[in-house]
């Protein structure tokens, strides 16, 4: 297991959709160990594989004292009810902007044994599940911001680079 370095914008891996995991081998098992160790730090709610430079569909979460992972996650249900709160990202350090997300989210995937996994939650966990699935599709939370807010965020980001 290893605490892995977080990739930050403008690293192109963050804008690349991740590949499905087709074989669960030692490489994938090591990836999960690294995701779990790296997410287990203060201020970290979730971590997608591409944030540590691996182009595979996997993420870990650390919400409300629960740490877990899911392989090949897909959002299968979102509530119509929304939440609007500041969101940040380890790959976009220091920026927090109001981001509208579904209040409830349900993700389905598999575990290291290839067995089905369901992760569902509200509030912060729902936000985390949506955020990490976006990462695996090559999207950042900045892409979801309202147009004028996104312009402000991108300007602030350029000033930091």
Automatic annotation (TrEMBL):
Gene Ontology biological process terms in this record: translation
Known catalytic reactions: N-terminal N-formyl-L-methionyl-[peptide] + H2O = N-terminal L-methionyl-[peptide] + formate
Cofactor(s) named in the record: Fe(2+)
Binding site for Fe cation: 89, 131, 135
Protein name, entry field: Peptide deformylase
Family the UniProt entry places it in: Belongs to the polypeptide deformylase family.
Residues annotated as catalytic: 132
GO MF: metal ion binding; peptide deformylase activity
Entry keyword annotation includes Transmembrane: no
Pfam annotation, one family: Pep_deformylase
EC number(s) recorded for this UniProt protein: 3.5.1.88
UniProt KW Protein biosynthesis keyword: yes
Organism from which the protein derives: Isoptericola dokdonensis DS-3
InterPro entries attached to this UniProt entry: Peptide_deformylase, Peptide_deformylase_sf
Described function: Removes the formyl group from the N-terminal Met of newly synthesized proteins. Requires at least a dipeptide for an efficient rate of reaction. N-terminal L-methionine is a prerequisite for activity but the enzyme has broad specificity at other positions.
Cofactor binding note from Swiss-Prot or TrEMBL: Binds 1 Fe(2+) ion.
Record keywords: Hydrolase, Iron, Metal-binding, Protein biosynthesis
Gene for this chain: def_1
């Amino acid at each position: 297991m290893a605490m892995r370095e977080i990739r930050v914008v403008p690293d192109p891996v963050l804008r690349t959709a991740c590949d499905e995991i087709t074989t669960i081998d030692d490489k994938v098992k090591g990836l999960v160990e690294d995701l779990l160790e790296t997410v287990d730090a203060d201020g970290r709610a979730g971590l997608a594989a591409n944030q540590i430079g691996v182009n595979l569909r996997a993420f870990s979460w650390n919400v409300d004292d629960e740490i877990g992972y899911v392989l090949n996650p897909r959002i299968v249900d979102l509530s119509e009810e929304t939440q609007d709160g500041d969101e940040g990202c380890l790959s976009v350090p220091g920026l927090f902007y109001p981001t509208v997300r579904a209040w409830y989210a349900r993700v389905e995937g598999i575990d290291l044994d290839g067995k089905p996994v369901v992760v569902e939650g509200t509030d912060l966990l729902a936000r985390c599940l949506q955020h990490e699935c976006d990462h695996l599709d090559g999207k950042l939370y900045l892409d979801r911001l309202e147009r004028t807010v996104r312009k402000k965020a991108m300007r602030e980001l350029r000033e930091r680079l």
